[in-house]
Amino acid sequence: MNIIDSHIHICRCINGFGNSGEMQAIGGGYASYADGTIFQMIPECLGEYDVTPEAVLKVMDEAGVSKAVMLQGNFLGPQNLYTYEAAKKYPDRLAAAATYDPFCRNVDSIRKHLFEDLGIKIVKFEVSTGSGLMSYHTTIPLDGDVIEEMLSYAEMHNNTVVFDIGRYPAECWQPEALARAIKRHPDTQFVVCHLLAPRGLVQENVWLKGMEALTLDNVVFDLASLPSNQGKDARYPYPDAIHYIKRAIELVGSDRLMWGSDLPMNLCKDSYRHLIDYIVLSNEISTPDKENIMAATAAKVYFK
What is the Cα–Cα distance from 193 to 276, expressed in whole angstroms? Predict the structure, then answer.
């Protein structure tokens, strides 16, 4: 079965920023926020201070993963140039997304360089209160003027737009507002990360309302971190994650779902093989649905 990882991260060096201030690598794969919080960010198989494209490709090759999409965010820190360089070096294996902060005074020149000079075709907006725009800016309405200006620019440049809106009940989790914004741009391809990040079956009803709002012709969902988002006690083969995938197939169809690992951090919690096999080896998902989820949807969205 062909496999495409629709959601990974690489970094030249960790330089994250979020609601706990700046985050730096401290060695051994660990990172520290400005408030003193320390945790493992990078598994031993991928590096100590960085996550190189070569290290990622080695892990992908061992697991039989053909391609991957390098997304962006403030958790590891923006890696626009490093990601662009990786995609140029391995164009048959890796696709690059860029990100930017719309509140930068020189936002016009930043966007011109990323999407016109460099020609990057995917833009990722993480707006979460953990490590996205709303972690260090005030709450931003996703159907407001700031987001609309960003989406208009993306539409003008034919960009695929990726959103991570965090998880319920944070202020960033605004699926209805995001749906209103998306409806203004029916010709733009949107990706919503983490299948809206449900955390355990107790959140199914609120998750269902969000999914119903975002069941739009130009929206697909990635499944990155779906297993780990089920809580600290979640274990392979992740039955709650499978439950949500089955529900999502019923709601939007498998041709609007795509697998992602959210590497590197999730490989600190479980193996890459398990993050693949909980879907590939599941008896509860049909082979045609698996083929869509594991590769066909991502190929259509990111590697067309």
Answer: 17
Query: Each residue of 183-207: b (16+ CB within 10 Å) or e?
Result: eebeebbbbbbbbbbbeeeebeeeb
Give the chain's radius of gyration (CA, Å).
18
Statement: residue 304 has pLDDT above 90? no
State pTM to two decimals.
Answer: 0.97
Sheet holding 160-164, edge to edge: 4-8, 67-70, 94-98, 122-126, 160-164, 190-192, 219-222, 257-258
Identify any residues that bridge with 67 across adjacent strands, giving them in sequence order: 4
- CA 113, chain centre distance (Å): 23
Contact, 249 vs 285, CB < 8 A?
yes
